[in-house]
Amino acid sequence: MSVITITNENFEQVKNSEKTVLLDFYADWCGPCRMVSPIVEEIAEENPQYFIGKINVDEEPQLAAEFEVASIPTLVVIKNGEIVNQSVGAKPKAQILSMLED
User: Fold this and answer.
1) Domain residues for 50?
2) Residues 66-82: tens digit of each pLDDT
3) Is the pTM of this model over 0.85?
4) What CA–CA distances, in Å, run from 58 to 28, 50, 96?
C-alpha cells in the first residue's frame, strides 16, 4: 500500500481505521522531513497491515495544531482512534517500525 496524503477532508476515516495508523507530519522545505519521507514510503510498501499517511503542516495547519505539532518531522501512531506513540525528529527505519509494533 502506498502513503496517503491526509487532509481535513479525509482525516476522520483515517483516524477511525481498523489498521494501526502512522502519520508523518512534514513540510516540503524541511531537510529532516526529506530524510524520513523515503523511509516512511518504504514502510508503507512493505507493511500493508498499517495505514500510512503524510500531513503537510503548511497545507493542513488545523491538523498540525490538533496534534500539537511544534517541530517536524513528527511521527504519530494511532490505534483504535487513540494516540499510542509520538516522536519528533528524523528516525531510522527500525525505530519507526518499533513505534508501530509497541
Assistant:
1) 4-101
2) 999 999 999 999 999 89
3) yes
4) 9, 25, 23
